[in-house]
Amino acid sequence: MMTKINEAVAFIQNIYKDEPVVGIVLGSGLGNFAKEITVEKEIPYGDIPHFPVSTVEGHSGKLLLGELSGKKIVAMAGRFHFYEGYNMQEVVFPIRVMKFLGIKTLLLSNAAGGVNPKLRVGDLMIVTDHISQLTVNPLIGKNYKELGTRFPDMTEPYKKDLINKVKNIAIAKGIKLQEGVYLGVTGPTFETKAEYLMIQAMGGDAVGMSTVPETIAAVHMGLAVFAMSIITDLGIRGDDETPITHAEVLAAAKEAEPAFSHIFKELVAQL
Ligand code: HPA
């Protein structure tokens, strides 16, 4: 594992000499945020040793290296999901590589289904905490001391000071933000009506198919994590039996993108 990480890092550092301090993962429908980045180097995942290759529509599958808000950053345009068939070590591999490229802070974004009735389609939700449900923990297996401790503490996976910064950014710009608990599932099915109700009963405000493994791997390595969900569909909607589609998820994410972009840009400026 460490050899693979080191080989991927060496490959990237051979192409891009600067040290990124922030890592960003762009979720479903948020690929356009890449336009905000002054991209200096762009590396398709397929070129990087040991990187899995993303297959989902709405994910372009490349590593972007460059500048955002005056900071050197590395961004993943497209991420790896467990439902694509990768194992959890593969899902979190790029997060580990970004850590060894030098990042101190990881910003995650995702599309999520709302289960708390206060949520509306298009809302931005600060992830204050998560519930790992039906996902395999990415730290199962040999623990690599170079990455972190065997039993990582998860009291504050999403850093309060980052959350407070984002709240202030949103207030200053008049952006309405929600906050809540993200419950992670494997997908790829959207949930049944009974499952959405179960998720609500368990304490989830929103549900999605990513983020939790990445956060766990990042916290393991001591990174400061911030995550934001875009609510792209509502799981609990009474008698409304309209099916949820991936196209609808992408469209809702796109709509929320200007507010999302402002927040991520400002947050990076303040790091
Ligand atoms: N459930 C799970 N994952 C999702 C959803 C959902 O409703 N919407 C976007 N990702």
Structural topology:
Elements: H1 2-15, E1 22-26, E2 38-44, E3 62-68, E4 71-77, H2 88-101, E5 105-114, E6 124-132, H3 160-173, E7 177-184, H4 193-202, E8 206-208, H5 212-220, E9 224-234, H6 246-255, H7 257-270
Helix pairs in contact: 1-2, 2-5, 3-7
Residues 111-113, 185, 187, 190-191, 207-209, 232-233, 235, 244, 249 line the site of hypoxanthine.
The total beta strand count reads: 9
Low-confidence stretches: none
The bound ligands are: hypoxanthine
- Proportion of helical residues: 25-40%
Class by alpha and beta content: alpha/beta
Distance between the termini: 30 Å
Largest sheet: 5 strands, mixed, barrel
Give the domain tally.
Answer: 1
Strands side by side in the biggest sheet: 5-8-7-6-9
Assigned CATH class: Alpha Beta
Query: What is the name of the CATH architecture?
Result: 3-Layer(aba) Sandwich
Radius of gyration using CA atoms only: 17 Å
Mean pLDDT: 92
CATH topology-level name: Rossmann fold
Describe what you observe in this structure.
It is a single chain. The two termini are about 30 Å apart. Strands 5-8-7-6-9 form a five-stranded mixed beta barrel, surrounded by five helices. It has helices at about 1-15, 90-100, 160-175, 195-200, 210-220, 245-255, 255-270, and strands spanning about 20-25, 40-45, 60-70, 70-75, 105-115, 125-130, 175-185, 205-210, 225-235. The chain has one domain: Nucleoside phosphorylase domain (Rossmann fold, 3-Layer(aba) Sandwich). It is an alpha/beta fold. The mean pLDDT is about 90. Bound molecules: hypoxanthine. Hypoxanthine (HPA) binds near residues 112 and 187.
